[in-house]
Amino acid sequence: MDTVDALISPQGSLDILTLEEVDLLQKSTTRGLYELFRQCCLAVLNCGNDEDDIDALLARNQRFEVAVVRQTRGALLQLYNAPASAFVNGEIILGIKENLFAVLRDIVYTHNHLFKSDNKQILSGPQITNLVFKILRHAQALTPRRQPKIAVCWGGHSINNVEYKYTKQVGYELGLRGHDICTGCGPGAMKGPMKGAHIAHAKQRCQDYRYIGISEPGIIAAESPNPMVNELIIMPDIEKRLEAFVRLGHAFIVFPGGVGTAEEILYLLGILLHPNNSHISMPLIFTGPAESTDYFTQIDAFIGATLGADAQQRYSIIIDDPSQVADQIYTATQEVEEQRQTLGEAFHFNWQLHIEDAFQQPFIPTHKNMAELNLKPNQAANKMAANLRCAMSGIVAGNVKQFGIEQVRRNGPYRLQAETELMKKLDTLLQSFVDQQRMKLPSSKDYVPCYTVE
Predict the structure, then answer these.
(1) Secondary structure (DSSP) of 314-332
(2) pLDDT digits (tens, 9 = 90+) for 394-414
């Protein structure tokens, strides 16, 4: 594989630093954070190569190294044996350069300035929300005087071509109506809406479009940011990533996906089902092409069976009609604007949203934690959503995150224990994701489930 050595100058929000801050960056990247920093940089440099096999990526780039170089004008990045695909005529692609410094900002700078020395401390809910706010503010993602128009698009990285084209059509319709797009930053349903919106924004001569990609270290190392992302934000873990979505976004669209998409759905519905949030406008639409009808029928039935009819009232399902999706999102965001004006609430960060501890505290997918999840039906819908969300999160880890993959490799599949009827529903849903190749990107290897349902 062709590689390049290069010295990269600052780009983005880290182009002005004190010498003390640069020294701190240097020290941090030579200690425990280095391997995480290296993997995330490698993922960014791998932009455009759609894969979700972190072991293959790391094996292919064993000689890659990165170092922070001190200078009075800021911090430089020295790359050794970087993938040549990230360069054109000897120069690094500008979007990749920006995202490399976003990695430096969020993995190292944020860690040093916003976390205390004891990283195992348990933060309270308000402390976690304040941390999410500070990370977004430091990333310059909060725009106080901008009209509420961020459409958060969720969906799978492993979708078929018909579904991918549909996500582009929806993105195009959203772009014509002036919406910014926020996704998980990877391929598939995370890339399509941004690509479609880009064409529409060009037609509308829009100059300040935003394609926000929110990831976290375990995901970004397996799913490289797609080339459309112009604002990359890496949150410390999946729970803070999900909170960033719901605090930052103004309307939500769900495309077909796998367990990661199910996790996102359960997270948002679990929050919306809390009585303290009953008055908050949070538009949510499930949509896909005609070929995805059965997928959404199954998702809807699973939500009804586990969370109840009230949860089903929190979203609408629109099949094969991109313009209707965009029209409803446009109308809904205007209602969000009016509500926030009435309540005196910020446009740029949804402070009023109540998020319970179960949705904020990090869930570590060990075999013990997965087996002990309460998946019994005799609990409040929002608590059931929290536990099902953790189950999905663990399966995502077992599929694509280095920690989860290693856990499964060492101890065998995760064991999920549920009441008989719920077990059948959960097993049916998960098996449909396997059958439709939504668990991982198609490859020469057959998918081997990282879980069992008992």
Answers:
(1) T-EEEES-HHHHHHHHHHH
(2) 999 998 888 899 999 999 999
In degrees, rounded to 5, the angle at the alpha carbon of residue 289 between the alpha carbons of residues 284 and 295 is: 70
Q: What is the mean pLDDT of residues 119-137?
A: 87
**pLDDT on residue 349:** 96
The answer to whether the CB of 211 falls within 8 A of the CB of 190 is no
Cβ(185)–Cβ(232) below 8 Å: yes
The answer to whether the CB of 14 falls within 8 A of the CB of 101 is yes
3-state SS assignment for residue 453: strand
Pure H helices in 30-154: 34-45, 54-60, 94-103, 110-114, 125-138
- pTM for the model: 0.91
Residue 395: name the closest of 404, 406, 407 by CA: 404
**Please, what is the Cα angle at 266 between 261 and 271, to 5 degrees?**
130
Give whole-number Cα distances, 233 to 98, 105, 186, 236, in Å: 11, 9, 12, 10
| Structure tokens, 402 | 């280095």
DSSP for 409-420 reads HHH-SEEE---H
Q: Are 226 and 191 in contact (CB under 8 A)?
A: yes
List of domains in the chain? 3-120 (3.30.1850.10), 122-454 (3.40.50.450)
Digit-coded pLDDT (tens) for 94-109? 999 999 888 888 887 7
